[in-house]
Amino acid sequence: MNKQITREDFLEYAQHNGELLRLEQEILEYRKNNSVSNINRVWYGTFKRRICGLAGWSAAVPALKSSQAYDMVYEYLYRLLSDKNFYLLVSKEIGG
User: Which of 14, 28, 52, 82 could make a disulfide contact with 20, Cβ separation 3.0–4.6 Å?
Assistant: First the structure.
């Protein structure tokens, strides 16, 4: 990806499936309440596997059945978990 995904980009996909917004909220809550010392363990053990059914070729919603949808959702949610400054920016944007 050439540009960093924004929440606005993510919302273009999330509007098609509310589960994506719930997953975003769970990641925000996780970041708020936990120190993230092993990001990849948390990501792969808790959040990443859930994306597959929501975006990408296995998605139930036709508008989310593409590798582009998967990549954008994956990048946004992983960045939300792993990048403290981005987490703080999004948190402030949505009033958390």
Answer: 14
